[in-house]
UniProtKB/TrEMBL annotation, chain A:
The keyword Oxidoreductase applies. Residues 119-273, 403-542 form the Nitrite/sulphite reductase 4Fe-4S domain. InterPro entries: NIR_SIR_4Fe-4S (IPR051329), NiRdtase/SiRdtase_haem-b_fer (IPR005117), Nit/Sulf_reduc_fer-like_dom_sf (IPR036136), NO2/SO3_Rdtase_4Fe4S_dom (IPR006067), NO2/SO3_Rdtase_4Fe4S_sf (IPR045854). It comes from the Bacteria. This is Nitrite/sulfite reductase. Residues 52-110, 342-394 form the Nitrite/Sulfite reductase ferredoxin-like domain. The lineage of its organism: Bacteria, Pseudomonadati, Pseudomonadota, Alphaproteobacteria, Sphingomonadales. PANTHER family: BLR3264 PROTEIN, FERREDOXIN--NITRITE REDUCTASE, CHLOROPLASTIC. GO terms for molecular function: 4 iron, 4 sulfur cluster binding; heme binding; metal ion binding; oxidoreductase activity. It holds the Pfam family NIR_SIR_ferr. Keywords: 4Fe-4S, Heme, Iron, Iron-sulfur, Metal-binding, Oxidoreductase. The keyword Disulfide bond does not apply.
UniProtKB/TrEMBL annotation, chain B:
Pfam families: DUF934. This is DUF934 domain-containing protein. InterPro entries: UCP030820. It comes from the Bacteria. It comes from Altericroceibacterium endophyticum.
UniProtKB/TrEMBL annotation, chain C:
InterPro entries: DUF2849. It comes from Altericroceibacterium endophyticum. This is DUF2849 domain-containing protein. The lineage of its organism: Bacteria, Pseudomonadati, Pseudomonadota, Alphaproteobacteria, Sphingomonadales. Pfam families: DUF2849.
Length: 544, 157, 99
């Protein structure tokens, strides 16, 4: 894992002091709320339905045990004993006081963490594949590049007042586990015919009210030009992105309105101009960062056998582990989706336990997934049973990864001031319904994603089944969407028709799964069946 | 770059006066004209860039410019940062003045993008402003100022 | 009637205008009439509240106050999915009344 040096630490410490000073000026009245709001947002501090909400960055989703412990301590000391892991691989606290914000950031800085640029119209926390450095199918670990970009984007002097927020994602495998094409910039690290590594750039994806899949604008950017190319992409956006209408201000609209060719032309022109400006870090910097992400000391000669005599354990192994590149190891997913629970929430005790388990079983490392679960990336198969028993005892052993109960849900109207409808109770009811029917594990891969409003924080556009909360004359109402995907086959879900009330949407999801079970052919997932048969049979069942 | 010079105590400043400057040459007091007017006439030495203007239109004329004002009608509109860097990247060495909604917390970024004079609509608290200019012990990226990025510090021998 | 709400600047807690100051309890809210803009501006400027705005609400027969919009009813109580963290953790009807 990356370790701060004196410089990284000095920057984060300076930021803590800056924000303390800004909070002081606000509380003493030297800053109006209008002036303070963008400053607090750049430190992840929102004002939400019940209190201030603090969003803490987890760069590329990677945490060590000490950091997870620190997150737990913050939940205990400054919040109400829990936190919410988000689709952006971050964590949010819902009950923060402005008076405490400086102290919290100082506590975070002690464990090399921060809330820098977790909100605001700047380059946000950079996300990555949650199985980075572990997955059997990976070309390279994307995190050294994400770390380089983290440094580049931190306090970037030119790109702090962009037209709108800016999200970057880096992956290093053909299989996309991070919704890469739904980011403002998605980067896949690839190899060219000469065997050199480079960055493939996808620009202009996003969700929100106008979802778009990012087109590829450059097949191969040499790694010693990565930062310069990103800088060119951003400068064109900063200069020409729309500022007249907040809903049209994301880069996806610029790329769409200019057309991919014209946007690319402008980027290439700016890039040519920038090449001799000394923007690129010395290549030695990437060489310095890489060893931090080197493989831990995997044992060799391990057996791949797993004792599957306990059926509950065997089920968990089948659903919640992922193939590892080292023989005898797997990546294990800790589900934060117990049936009837709040998706993504974890208590301080659970966080401490996950920290302990990371230390004991996974080389002191864990990851936050965009599906709001936690990964222990490097677990010995021989340790799995002991690990699972401890998870089970703490309510963290649910076997449902990528299945109907593994629902992504945004905070919705229970916490979020922008919401139209509650997301969490819908997720709870759906998970309970399928558990009662005994179908929690019989429907195969089925990604269900719920957002409480059009902003799409819950990725509903990318759900095999998506649910969008809307306001219907002051009442909560839910639209059903089908056919989205955020994988390498990214697609955007389509609305089935008129919306449903809270119980109606649970019934509607059930009907959709019945259509799937009736229509499915051998080996098909829900998404495959939908893609083959189309919307019609689903509409018929829902509204016919 | 020259030391910070504060022009007058903040109380004595009017809206739009230059409050901070990192240059020791004479303050340019010629009125700044619009980019369109400037490109079309030969005798002006001061020009004012609005957020929608293309700073590159000025590049052929840099040798006759003594002052570029970049206007920030609202501090949230960050186009002026790119305009400033484009001018500095092209070698412009004259005064680059941030005017308009210029606030404490943007000062250090503006300076990094090449601004060397600041004329806020509302004069700023001098101590807070100085603290803001000195905020960052280091910088990650290279920009239009002369600070050495952390990246280079790490790899200096 | 119109009532005024916002958050406490330091703690972020949801507050309601009760005539002289800000209360944590929506039932303390008073009818603000139509002339509240100056009051809101002063209260914001004095940093006694942040993000204040006026909403429609009705006073029920038993004296309690019910905001017209569900969002403000959730604000007044707390998250419906965590009854233990609401202002009425021991009232089994509290959540149903929000909806
Ligand atoms: C509770 C406070 C939150 C607020 C006020 C908020 C606000 C927003 C807004 C306004 C957008 C739309 C941006 C646009 O289209 O330009 C958005 C998008 C998004 N947010 Fe949130 N959000 C919140 C919480 C979350 C949470 C909890 C997550 C993760 C679970 C999240 C993840 C995202 C994602 C993934 C998107 C879509 C990205 C895209 O449009 O490309 N947000 N959010
Ligand atoms: S999707 Fe809407 S309701 Fe959900 S967190 Fe985002 S802004 Fe809030």
């Amino acid at each position: 894992m990356y370790k701060y040096d004196q410089y990284d630490q000095a920057m984060v410490d300076a930021r803590v002091e800056e924000f303390r000073d800004q909070c002081r000026r606000r509380m003493e009245g030297h800053l109006t709320e209008d002036q303070f709001k963008p400053l607090r947002l750049m430190n992840g501090l929102y004002l939400q339905l019940h209190a201030y909400m603090l969003r803490v960055a987890v760069p590329y989703g990677t945490l060590n045990g000490q950091q997870m412990d620190a997150l737990a301590d913050i939940a205990d000391k400054y919040d109400r004993g829990y936190g919410h892991f988000t689709t952006r691989q971050n964590i949010q606290y819902n009950w923060i006081k402005l008076e405490d914000a400086g102290d919290i950031l100082a506590d975070l800085a002690k464990v090399e963490m921060h809330a820098i640029q977790t909100s605001g119209n700047c380059i946000r926390n950079i996300s990555a594949d949650h199985f980075a450095g572990a997955a059997a199918d990976e070309l390279v670990d994307p995190r050294p590049y994400a770390e380089l970009m983290r440094q580049w984007s931190s306090f970037h002097p030119e790109f702090t007042y962009l037209p709108r927020k800016f999200k970057i994602c880096v992956i290093g495998a053909d299989k996309d586990r991070a919704a890469m094409k739904l980011h403002d910039i998605g980067i896949q690290i690839v190899k060219n015919d000469e065997g050199e590594l480079g960055a493939q750039f996808y620009v202009g994806g996003g969700m929100g009210r106008t979802p778009m899949i990012a087109p590829m604008i450059r097949e191969f950017v040499p790694l010693d030009q990565l930062i310069t190319y990103a800088e060119a992409c951003l400068r064109v956006y900063n200069r020409y992105g729309r500022r007249d209408n907040k809903y049209k201000a994301r880069i996806k609209i610029l790329v769409h309105e200019l057309g991919k060719e014209e946007y690319t032309r402008q980027v290439e022109e700016e890039f040519q101009h920038m090449l001799d400006q000394g923007i690129e870090p010395p290549f030695a910097e990437l060489e310095r960062i890489r060893p931090y992400f080197a493989d831990p000391a995997f044992e060799t000669g391990l057996s791949d056998d797993i004792d599957r005599s306990d059926p509950d354990f065997a089920l968990w192994v089948d659903t919640n582990t992922h193939a590892h590149k080292a023989p005898g190891y797997v990546s294990a997913v800790i589900s934060l989706k117990p049936v009837g629970g709040i998706p993504g929430d974890a208590t301080a005790e659970q966080m401490h336990l996950m920290a302990d388990l990371a230390r004991e079983y996974s080389f002191d490392e864990c990851r936050v997934m965009h599906t709001q679960n936690i990964v222990l990336p490097h677990v010995k198969k021989a340790d799995l049973y002991a690990l699972w028993q401890k998870l089970e005892a703490a309510g963290l052993g649910t076997a449902n990864l990528d299945q109907i109960g593994d629902i992504i849900a945004c905070p919705g109207l229970d916490y979020c001031s922008l919401a139209n409808a509650r997301s969490i109770p819908v997720a709870q009811k759906i998970a309970q319904r399928f558990e009662e029917k005994g179908q929690s594990n019989t429907l195969g891969e089925l990604k269900l994603k719920i957002s409480g409003c059009i902003n799409a924080c819950g990725h509903h556009h990318a759900g095999h089944i998506g649910i969008l909360g809307v306001d219907k004359k002051g009442k909560e109402n839910y639209q059903l969407l089908l056919g989205g995907s955020e994988g390498e086959d990214t697609s955007l879900a389509k609305i089935t028709g008129p919306g449903f009330d809270e119980d109606g949407i649970v019934d509607a999801v059930e009907k959709a799964t019945e259509v799937y079970l009736n229509e499915k052919q051998e080996g098909e997932r829900f998404l495959d069946t939908y893609r083959r048969v189309g919307m019609a049979p689903f509409k018929e069942a829902l509204y016919g | 770059m020259a030391e910070l010079i504060s022009e007058n105590p903040a109380e004595a400043l009017a809206s739009g006066d230059v409050q901070f400057r990192f240059r020791d040459d004479e303050l340019v007091s010629d009125p700044a004209v619009t980019v369109d007017a400037f490109v079309g006439q030969s005798n002006a030495v001061a020009v004012r860039i609005e957020p929608g203007d293309d700073a590159r239109e000025l590049l052929p004329h840099l040798d006759r410019i003594a002052l570029v004002e970049v206007n920030f009608p609202a501090y949230t509109d960050g186009r002026g940062y790119s305009a400033a860097r484009i001018l500095r990247e092209a070698g412009y060495a004259g005064e680059l003045r941030a005017v308009g909604d210029v606030l404490i917390d943007q000062l250090s970024h503006m300076k990094r993008c090449g601004f060397d004079a600041f004329a806020p609509d509302a004069p700023l608290n001098e101590d807070d402003a100085k603290a803001a200019f000195d905020r960052w012990p280091h910088v990650y990226q290279s920009a239009a100022d002369d600070r050495t990025p952390i990246w280079n510090l790490r790899h200096e021998r | 009637m119109k009532i005024l709400t916002g958050n406490n600047l330091e703690t972020g807690a949801v507050v309601w205008w009760e005539g002289k100051g800000w209360s944590l309890h929506v039932d303390d809210a008073v009818d603000a009439g139509e002339e509240f803009e100056t009051l809101l501006a002063t209260e914001e400027a004095e940093r006694r509240v942040v993000g204040a705005y006026a909403i429609d609400a009705e006073r029920l027969d038993d004296g309690r106050v019910r905001p017209a919009h569900i969002k403000d009813r959730v604000r007044a109580l707390g998250p419906t999915v965590r009854p233990d963290l609401t202002l009425k953790p021991n009232d089994p009807n509290a959540i149903a009344e929000v909806l």
